[in-house]
Structures are given as structure tokens and as C-alpha cells.
């Protein structure tokens, strides 16, 4: 049994939905379908969920929202017309929205229900379309599927009993189409997951039904081993472990929210990334473990926007608690740190610039000076982190050698090397201006 | 004006003291001499200070100590006889010891005064000897030199006003011989520095008189760039910065207590290591800054006896305060950590095995499991750290490349790489069994 989830671009319009239907028909094991709301049809387009949020905002501010509502209805109308299916669902959508807005629920619950309308409506449209093609298919509301969540509007947490309910889907002989992104509290309130939550639904459903495979249909053929904006036509990754994918996601590598995969990960369900526009392609499969590969490196990820707080003090390593006090100062300001390379008399803390705006930075520096009395403290800006990732890293002699050689060839100074905790990655810090040549040099070293 | 300090092996017997006298006569700028107590004359010998400690212990336990006293007196008798100088000083030593033991002072103060007898007596003997050679030389007691310290028996802290007093030594035209290792409180009590304190005295005196050079005479020609027990006849280091020396000392590289140099460091006095047995040799000079060298690497240090506590937890980097809590657990047990390489979902803490005996380790692991609820936690043993040190490290592309290549050539897996905080060193973690081949490979890479 396979669970297939289709992302926003895969369900953006009628043309895409025809491809979706073909994919479902191509494999009889694709019994459970999870869908997002229609995404962008072209780059300047607006996603349906964003249209719904705009509608909700206007409503909350007591501004007129009729034209926004019409835009939403038009999007679905366009689909039903082109797919030549009944447009009865358009009236359902309109009535549903009015009903949400005029209910007694809190504003937070209203917004959640509104946001979920995109997925919910698309699921209905798709099930009608599949039926029109002669398939035994049915729309299944998350409440009836048993997707129960905590009462946290906008960031639902799945309740464990949901998995038992979902398992019963195995008994059905039809194709079920479930809208992603939301669930229900035990007392019947609609609550959405965090943004990108169709991935979360898909993963939960795949874990619940104990699927043989969870297929995540998106708009790229595979996960590439390096950012295709930096290296043209990079090699595709055939298979990744969960660990490798998480390390790569950290440095900006994501095709999807890596956290969304946790339920599938815990249930040991293999996940396959595939392209709706090229469904015959092999895609990239993500598994718990894989056999050792000839190439111990699976991918190179990079991200800019890091800064480093450097603190030095003669005989620092004799002061018990120095490092801990430094981290406490950051924690008090709510700044999570990324890494802390340390020397004997100095320590650096690497932080995402976005987590430390100017006012926080000033307070942090002032506290460091006052409480730790360092010899020097300064902030180095414009850092980028590059991760070289692969399960083979732990036991392969010479990988650090190759990696550092690549940087040397590209004439890039290494500001930081951090290796030894993670068993599947090596991290390098460089000046952000040097990212492209570094990544290209590493690609050449490890993939060519 | 130069300050010359002579260590225990340099003043162990008459033969050594003849060399000391020659060294002093060779350079008229050597005006202030600081001396240790006589050290070992041969490897199974006992240092005079240890004989004094044995005497003190016997006295405190009300055991007979006459034979121990005689051994001490015999050591000095041997010297005065061979140097053909008056043995009047032997009577002074004996009377002095009796006077200390029978005084009203506390046991702690008595022990300090007893321990200091070796340096004090040797200083007297040397000054008499120099006079016998026709030099204008005088013994100078630390009280009269103005070396004032805090009231902490066994770990005196210098009081700042001492420096002003010491500066007046510049006005003298004779050679002064000052015993190292002790000073006086403002109310006249004799207090010793921590063990190895003659280095501290020498450094303080050099800073006080604003010497042009502080010469530390010992029994090696220079500081070598690598441990001569691992690489035969290694290259000698001509010059080191204070920072480089401190990094090298960290990993077991010390010729002396690097902390002892702090006063000289703060006063910007250059320090030169020389060999009493080969005084014409260039030695190694230690300075605040030096010009860029052709070889950016100045030395390689290594030390075994490290362990690594490895903790992993999925989504660790989302838990604000995780790293800080881990460090707090170690701090509560009084365990200072050396380094913390961290990944996204894991962190390692490198600790000296000597700081974490079995019982502490068990408590630490138990607390980590209970308070942090990790996915895994384990201790990796038998680690060694290797430091590649040099002021050129910060701005030289390709050093990490060369270093990692050396390890790869030696077929050594790198457990950890830590670079980026210290601007003058790169640290590598390896299995302790691989230290020798690693150090040799690095030596070959950087020094041949």
C-alpha cells in the first residue's frame, strides 16, 4: 500500500490535476492520497492559501472581502470547468467560508478553518474528478480519518491515538483523498498544523497505515547533491538516510520541512521524492539506513547569514563555568546557538544573524563584558556555513583531507572547521562571499 | 639589563654552579640573578626541596628528623667544599632550620619557610662563590628586594607594589642574587609561591626591573617544535609568541609553567630559554609579537588522556538551552570541559579523563539521561588531542589541507577537528594509539 502526497504546484490547476490522476491510475497501490491547496500556476501567482489568509485578515479588520472571496472561487471554478466536472463544489466552498466567518468560534479558530479551506476544497474536487474517470474514489475528511490533534491553532500536535484510527484505512477498497494541513481536536475543533503542514499530514497518514512507501510528489525530479543554482546540472541523489537529509536540510537544503518527516521516520516508512511532471523518474528515496555507498559523501549544503561572537580571555580554560555562563547569556535573550568552536583561551559562538537583531546583540555584548570580563569580544559577520554530508564520513580516512584541499584549491580561507560530533557531516565556516567557489570546488572533488 | 634565572638542574652541584658563574661573567648585563634550590644531580637523586619537605613532614609527625637534616647540610657542604668557599653558610642553614621549627608560627607558615630554605641557601652560596671569583655580587633577600605577596601559604599572589620596589634594583651596580620561590607578606611572614615558583619569581623580577631580556636557564637547548621522544632530533624553535607557547603548553609541551610567565607577558619582556650546559646556543625566544615567518606553523603538541561524552537527540538544535544544560551538569561536578564540537542533533564534550573519575562519570551520565532525555549518550575513551600551532594559521589558506593530508597519509581517522576559535592553533582528536604516527606525519609535512 502506498501513500501519495501531492504538493501545491502539483495541484495548482486542471493540467496538473490531470497528471495527478494519471499517476494515481498508474499504480493500484496508490490507495491513500493526501493533497495540498492549489499553489502558484506561474511565478507571480498567489497560492490559494495566501488568498484565504488575505480574506481572513480583511474580515478581522472589518474590511470588505467579497473580491477576495471571488478570486478564490474563481480558482476552483477554473479547475472544475476545465476538468469538465460538476461545479456543485464551488457552492459548497462559498457556503463553507460564510459559515466559518459567521460562527461563534474565536478568531484564532476561524482563521485556522479558513486556511484549511484550500486543501479541503481541492480534496473534494480531486475525488469528484477521479470518480468522473471511473475510479472508485472518495473524499475523506480528517475527522473521519481519525486525525486528532492538540488544541493549538496554527501548530497542532498529532495525538497518538490517530495512528490506530488511520490503520483502519487499510480495510477500504477505494481510493481515499484526504486534505492535508489540518486535523480536529477530540471535541471537534478544526486546528491546522504549522505552515507546510500537508507534508506533516502525509507523513502521519503513511505512518498510520504502515505504508510500504510514502511518495512525496513535488516539482523537482530528485534531491540534488548540491544547490542547482550554484552548480549547473548537478548529480541527483538516489538515496539518502534520514540523518543525512536532516543535516542537509539544516543548511538550507530543503525540498520540504524535514520535521514533517518525523512520523514516517519513527515508523520506519521509506519516503520517495518524485516529480509530478516526470513521474517515471527514479526520484530520491529516504530511508532509515542504507548500504555503504562507493561515494561516502551524499551532498553539500550551504547557508549564509551567520555571525560569530568571539570571546577571548587569558587562562579562560581555568575558569570553571566560563563557557556555560556565555551560553546562559545567549539563552536569556532567546538566542539559540549553532556551534561553539573553542580554543584554550577563547571561544566562538556561531549564531544565525536573524536570531540576533541589533538590540539583542548590544545587550549580549554588554553582558559578556560585564559578567565575563574578557580580554576581547567582537562579532564577525557575513559568515556562511557549508556542510559536507554522508553516512560514510565517520569511518573514512581522508575525507577531511579532500574537503580542505578543495577549499585550498579555490583559495578560500577556512574560518572554522567543526567535525567530530555528527557522524554524518563535516561543517566549514567561510566568508559568505566565497560560498559559490567553495561549493563548486567541493562538488568537483566529491562528485566528479 | 638582563635577568637570568637558573633552574634546579642548573644549580644542582658545584660543577653546574661553575657553569652558572661563567655565564654570569660572560655578559655584564646579567645583573639580576634568580635561583632555584639544588635539583637532581642524577636521575635517582632527590631534589633539595623534596628533602626539606620530608624533614618538615617528619617534624610535624613528631618523628626524628636529624638524618634528613644532615642530608640537606651534606648537599651544601659538598658544594662549598668543591667550590673552595667558606662553609660558614652551612652553619647558617642549620641554625635557620632550627629557628624555623622552634618558632611560634603556624605549621603552614613553618612548612613554607622550610620549603624556601633550599632557594635561600643556594642564593647565599652562589653570591659567596661569585665574590670569591672577584665579582661584586650580593645575596638579596626577597623582603629587601620588595617582593610582597598575599597571605596564602603555598600559593602566594604577588602584590602590585612589588614592581615599584623591584625597579629600584636598576640603581645598583653590583650583581644581585635573589632566591626564587618565596616572598613576604606586608607584616613580614614568609610565603611560598606554588611549586615551580622560581619561574614565577624570575618573571616578576624581570617585569619589575623592566629587563631588556629575561633569560630562563634550564637543561635543554631550546623548545623543540615537536616532542623529541616522538621525533628524533627535531628542529628547534627559534622564536615563539606568548600565544603560541600557551597553546603548545596546553597539550603537554611545557619546558616550564606557562602561567609563571604572566608577569613578563604583561610587561612585554622578551623571554629566552637557554641551556646552562650550552649557553652559546641560540635558545628559544618568546615574545609578544613576531614578524610573519616563512613557516606559519611553529610547533606540534600532543597529549593523551581525553574522553568524549557524546549526546544525540533528534531536533536537539530546536531545544533552547540544551547545550547550556549539558555544560551545567559538568560544572556541578566540577569538571572543566576542553571542547564541545557540536552537530545539529548531537554534541560532544571533550574532557580530561583525570577530571572525571568513574563515580563522577556515572553521575554525569545519569543526570544527562534524566534531565536531557537524549536519544543516545555514550563515552568514547582513549582520545588524544594534537595541536598544530602557529601565528600564521589565521590567514594562511591551505593549512588545514596540509594537516588533514598528513593524517590521511598516516592512515589515521580524524575523530574530531576543531578550528576557528583560536587564531593560532588547529586541534585534532584521534585515538591515542595513533599519536606517534600522526605527530611524525605532521612533522614531515610542516618541518621537512
From TrEMBL, chains A, B:
Any single Gene Ontology cellular-component annotation: cytosol
Residue numbers binding ATP: 5-8, 218-219, 224
EC number, as in UniProt: 2.7.2.4
GO molecular function: aspartate kinase activity; ATP binding
Entry keywords, A to Z: Amino-acid biosynthesis, ATP-binding, Diaminopimelate biosynthesis, Kinase, Lysine biosynthesis, Nucleotide-binding, Transferase
Protein's GO biological process: diaminopimelate biosynthetic process; homoserine biosynthetic process; lysine biosynthetic process via diaminopimelate; threonine biosynthetic process
SUPFAM superfamilies given in the database record: ACT-like, Carbamate kinase-like
Reactions catalysed: L-aspartate + ATP = 4-phospho-L-aspartate + ADP
InterPro entries (alphabetical): AceGlu_kinase-like_sf, ACT-like_dom_sf, ACT_Aspartokinase, ACT_dom, AKIII_YclM_N, Asp/Glu/Uridylate_kinase, Asp_kin_monofn, Asp_kinase
Pathway: Amino-acid biosynthesis; L-lysine biosynthesis via DAP pathway; (S)-tetrahydrodipicolinate from L-aspartate: step 1/4; Amino-acid biosynthesis; L-methionine biosynthesis via de novo pathway; L-homoserine from L-aspartate: step 1/3; Amino-acid biosynthesis; L-threonine biosynthesis; L-threonine from L-aspartate: step 1/5
Binding site for substrate: 49, 119
Top-tier EC class: transferase
Recorded superkingdom: Bacteria
Domain ACT: 388-448
Stored NCBIfam families: asp_kinases, PRK09034.1
UniProt cross-references to PANTHER family, sorted A to Z: ASPARTATE KINASE, ASPARTOKINASE 3
Function noted in UniProt: Catalyzes the phosphorylation of the beta-carboxyl group of aspartic acid with ATP to yield 4-phospho-L-aspartate, which is involved in the branched biosynthetic pathway leading to the biosynthesis of amino acids threonine, isoleucine and methionine.
Membership in a protein family: Belongs to the aspartokinase family.
Protein name: Aspartokinase
